[in-house]
Design goal:
Blueprint (H helix, E strand, L loop, with lengths): L17 H32 L9 H38 L7 H30 L5 H28 L3
Amino acid sequence: MIMESQTVNVAVQVKTSPKDFFLHLLGMVALYASAISFLMIVFSMINFYVPDPLQQGDYYRNTGLREQIRGSLSALIVFFPVFLFVNNFLRKSYEIAPEKRNLSVRKWLIYFTLFVAALVMMGYLVSAIYSFLGGELTRQFGLKVLSIFFVAGSIFGYYLNDVRKYNTE
């Protein structure tokens, strides 16, 4: 009599600890703050280097743009390394305990991020079409839309790939 070896996949239920909750939340907040800061820098650079012909020579506008770049760069310098550190820490914890990838807080935050990224991209697409139909599509606006699609699309693609790769449901 030959006995066949059978493997049984048992889903391990892991409870979310306060540490897990706050690390995942910190990672997502740092991601959002980094994305917003980066986009504010890009928008300010577009406004500075591709000025609106009706607003050229405005000393106060240029000073305000420099201030906005300085503030956004300060936030990016703080938040992006925090995002990288937290994500690296979480990635190492997933290698040790792969079942932590199925934490409900992680899934909720990832799906919320996918939702927000999709809404941002759709909103800017509606805005681009509205401006185009009104005859007001400028180089500034086009560059800003492209930068939004790049950032939101990158975030959306990264987390969608993560969901597809590690989806156990």
